[in-house]
Amino acid sequence: MFRNGTHFRRYRVLHVIDSLDLGGAQVVLENLIRHGDTSRFEFEVASMHGRGQMWERLAALGVPMHSLSHHHKVPLYVPRLMWKFLSRQFDVVHTHLLAANVIAKPIAAMCGVPVRINHDHCNDKLTDPRRWALPADTFTNTLSTHIIAVSESTREFLVNHERIASDRVTTIHNGIDTDAYQPRPDLRRASRGKWGLPASGFVVGGVGRLTHQKNFELFLNIAAQIPNAFFVIGGTGEDEAALRDQVVRLGLGERVKFLGYVSDMPSLWPALDCLLLTSRYEGLPITILEAMACGVPIVASNLDGIREILRDGVNAALVPPGEVSPFVDAVRTLIEKPSEATRLAAAALVTVRADYSASRMARDVETIYLRYLEGEK
């Protein structure tokens, strides 16, 4: 290939992620590949273990895919990463999530990969039950050429708690494909039919991994207090069995539906009247960006990363995390005052279209690559 009359090769970038199971980090990775500049970069993806629900979506983009081990407890990823780094001569290794950061990045440094980027998707190390998580993350971040934080609060955590020099951490907010995610009220009836939801009535959605972080236990407790609405949960995770038992205990019956993993999120959003996000902590969840782009009003925990793009009463309803009553009141307001729901959704749509596109995110990330590869500022 040629640029300015001079032959050059595309830079080789390997994204390494813990797994390709459902999650916001995986969607960010997908968008970095989908919207990446393939005239300058040659991308590959490696999952530390297994394939997961996102594997086929990434493979469909035409990038080489690698599963480094069949199970996270079988450390085949160590020799396979060493071989890959030494044989492929990657210019950039971009790690996502804890295991990739603490395992893949040191190996990349040892094998002489020149640019090592860590993408920090959530400032959750202080709440991680694994006591080694924070010190391991802190130590291996010293091997990072640069660190990307998905929110300013995540950046502040890295600077203040992990003592990373401020000029080595850049906030790049997540972005989504605003062409794929748009308001489609004309698809409301078809979407509800596809997902087996009531043709009429108010439908509240919760989307994400069924884990402690996302706090779907609270989601169901809120559902129990709003009998005139239907609640749907899209996602899988270790808490699913307990959540299904909770539905029975609360007598929610047919008012709650579990959809499992939703591979085609654009087809679900038209069916929803509200996104209810009850997380205990977050960085910058992809789910809220999708809801904003699809014109779905949001009721969410008032968390630091979320506050960076949503303002209570302006483009969303933000309430104290962990408390049932404020969530119930906020959802009831949207049910009883459709004009308020419309106003919040319209303001959120303006926000996401202006500042949170996937192409903008990809360009910002690639600018950091080039800063170290070519000295561009």
Verbal overview:
With 377 residues, the chain is α/β, with parallel strands linked by helices. The protein folds into 2 domains: 2-175 and 357-373, Rossmann fold (3-Layer(aba) Sandwich); 185-355, Rossmann fold, CATH 3.40.50. Helix content is 38%, strand content 18%. It has 14 helices and 15 strands. The protein has helices at 24-34, 55-59, 77-88, 98-110, 133-141, 152-160, 188-194, 216-224, 240-249, 286-293, 304-307, 324-336, 338-355, 358-373; strands at residues 2-3, 6-7, 11-17, 41-47, 65-67, 92-96, 115-120, 146-149, 169-171, 202-207, 229-234, 256-260, 274-277, 298-301, 317-319. The strands form 3 sheets. The protein has a 7-stranded parallel β-sheet, with helices on both faces. Helix 1 packs across helix 14 (358-373), helix 3 packs across helix 4 and helix 12 crosses helix 13 (338-355). The longest helix has 18 residues, at 338-355. The protein is globular. The two termini are 23 Å apart. The model has no long low-confidence stretch (mean pLDDT 93).
How would you summarize this macromolecular structure in one to three sentences?
With 377 residues, the chain is of the alpha/beta class. It has 14 helices and 15 strands. The protein has two domains: 2-175 and 357-373, 3-Layer(aba) Sandwich (Rossmann fold), CATH 3.40.50.2000; 185-355, Rossmann fold, CATH 3.40.50.2000.
Question: How do the helices and strands line up, and which of them pair or pack?
Answer:
Blueprint: E1 2-3, E2 6-7, E3 11-17, H1 24-34, E4 41-47, H2 55-59, E5 65-67, H3 77-88, E6 92-96, H4 98-110, E7 115-120, H5 133-141, E8 146-149, H6 152-160, E9 169-171, H7 188-194, E10 202-207, H8 216-224, E11 229-234, H9 240-249, E12 256-260, E13 274-277, H10 286-293, E14 298-301, H11 304-307, E15 317-319, H12 324-336, H13 338-355, H14 358-373
Parallel strand pairs: 3-4, 3-6, 4-5, 6-7, 7-8, 8-9, 10-11, 10-13, 11-12, 13-14, 14-15
Antiparallel strand pairs: 1-2
Helix pairs in contact: 1-14, 3-4, 4-5, 8-12, 12-13
